[in-house]
Amino acid sequence: MKAVHFGPGNIGRGFIGLLLSKSGYDVCFVARNKKQIAMLQQRKQYPVTLANENEDTSIVRNVTAINGNDSRQVNEAIAEADLITTAVGVSNLKHIAPAITTGIEHRFKTNDRPLNIMACENAIGASTHLKKMVYKLLPAELHEKADRLLAFPNTAVDRIVPAQDNEDPLEVTVEPFYEWVILRPAMKEGPKEIKGAHYVESLEPYIERKLFTVNTGHCCAAYFGYLEGYRTIQEVMASPRLRQKVKEVLQETGKVLIRKHQLDEKKHQRYIDKTIDRFANPNLKDSIVRVGRSPIRKLSANDRLVRPALLAYQYGIEIPQLISAMAAGLLFDYKKDPEAVKLQEVLRKRGIHHVIGQYLGIEEDHPIHRQIVDEYEKLAKGIRKKNAAM
Ligand SMILES: NC(=O)c1ccc[n+]([C@@H]2O[C@H](COP(=O)([O-])OP(=O)(O)OC[C@H]3O[C@@H](n4cnc5c(N)ncnc54)[C@H](O)[C@@H]3O)[C@@H](O)[C@H]2O)c1
Ligand SMILES: O=P(O)(O)OC[C@@H](O)[C@@H](O)[C@H](O)[C@H](O)CO
Fold this sequence. Notes:
By secondary structure, the chain is an alpha/beta fold. The chain has two domains: 2-202, Rossmann fold, CATH 3.40.50; 205-389, Orthogonal Bundle (N-(1-d-carboxylethyl)-l-norvaline Dehydrogenase, domain 2). Helices cover 54% and strands 14% of the residues. The chain contains 17 helices and twelve strands. The strands form three sheets. It has a six-stranded parallel sheet with strand order 5-2-1-6-7-8, with helices on both faces. Strand 3 and strand 4 (57-61) form a beta hairpin. Bound molecules: nicotinamide-adenine-dinucleotide and D-Mannitol-1-phosphate. D-Mannitol-1-phosphate binds at residues 122, 158-160, 214-215, 218-219, 291, 293-294. InterPro entries: 6-PGluconate_DH-like_C_sf (IPR008927), 6PGD_dom2 (IPR013328), Mannitol_1_phos_5_DH (IPR023028), Mannitol_DH (IPR000669), Mannitol_DH_C (IPR013118), Mannitol_DH_CS (IPR023027), Mannitol_DH_N (IPR013131), NAD(P)-bd_dom_sf (IPR036291). Belongs to the mannitol dehydrogenase family. Keywords: NAD, Oxidoreductase.
């Protein structure tokens, strides 16, 4: 069985490639970095180390890589694939959609086998989003065949994989916890089951629970910590005050999730507690700028901050800490993050009301809009005062 995975980055190697390989797939990574491609081609394996006390290491075997710009190789790999996965960042799916589409066209000329394509990105409906882009590019006369042979099952992947600084550039250090949830009814029959993945009949409760707990809490820790000069999530979680703030955010989104998906309260509390412990894992060093990266995406209407905030408003749930996190996110001005730079530029040129309306999708007449503005101004004033005193 052959899997083609776009994006051999942290989660691609540290989780997707690992589970696929352990499930008996030969994994071909579609990559951009020439040095990385050469190493994967030559070694055909790489180590994954768990961030636990023993630093347990396993070897991911039967892997190789091809260059995403080599359309002949990409076409051939897609034609032969039994499964395609991606982990390139949801905003980058548009860059790989053309190669996937061309590969599908080539595949249709060579065989009639069904194919599942899963975008393992942190977003609601990422595979559906990729499907829309592929269908836009695919000639209309192939749509019927695509409906028959292709599926884009949505999925939720969870494992904290920080930016790596190992001596071996292929090695990945990952947290021990993992969860991969796949929407089974959306799949085409055929491919080997992924060992360790959880196949479900409805994905929404799982992806929302993950995104609005793990990712909401994570980015809140990053944005709160950034304002106070911390460098890592572990440092933030070691501050009792900030840890408490993050916990409170998760109580707020927890109420939303319990109400929306009729989750068991005690079970969800255990999920929150486990999530907090995962953030604090002393064997990991996860930078604030990785976790807070791409604030425009994270503050967008369908993502981990605004979506639970609007649901909370709808349900009459108070969300002071979520408001505080959105305001802190608007102050995330890390110079090496292109989205942070753009956000700050628009804030300077067009002002806070424009940004909340256009980027967060919350109009001025919505009560949450005002609350974010008030909190943003309060935090910005605090920063000005601190800078003046320095
Ligand atoms: N790291 C985590 O903890 C984690 C966990 C769950 C989900 N995710 C999600 O997985 C995705 C990847 O995250 P990551 O942390 O592994 O990031 P990363 O930057 O480590 O990896 C991204 C990979 O995609 C590649 N890539 C980007 N654009 C590409 C293109 N046009 N063609 C080919 N390759 C391309 C990059 O070269 C890189 O190898 C994101 O959507 C993220 O939200 C990450
Ligand atoms: O990947 P992002 O930018 O959507 O979010 C950053 C982190 O919160 C994220 O990568 C987590 O580590 C991961 O989602 C855990 O499963």
